[in-house]
Design brief:
three-stranded antiparallel sheet; 19% strand; 3 strands; alpha+beta
Length: 91
């Protein structure tokens, strides 16, 4: 499974004069990946989701680096990282 390519970012849509808005995670200016309805955690949740592609890429690099360390601690962390990567990739 592959995620939507492009830089994910967050945009806020304000409805009329109301301060209520939706946070959108967008891969480009034309399409929305997800909509986060406004609540007390909406902006934080949207920012977390928008950072997912970068975090996945970095976690893959960390796992590669940890494989170079021959300790029980490093092997355990590689296992955790590989589980998270597989889950993110739908495996």
């Amino acid at each position: 499974m592959k995620h939507t390519k492009g830089k994910w970012d967050v945009a806020k849509i304000i409805s009329g004069d109301a301060v209520v808005y939706h946070s959108l995670i967008r891969a480009d200016k034309k399409r929305s990946i997800a909509t986060i309805l406004q609540n007390s955690n909406a902006e934080a949740n949207a920012n977390l989701i928008a950072s997912a592609p970068k975090m996945l890429a970095e976690l893959k690099m960390v796992a590669i680096g940890l494989k170079q360390i021959d300790t029980a601690w490093a092997r355990e962390r590689v296992g955790y990282a590989e589980e998270a990567i597989a889950k993110a990739e739908g495996k």
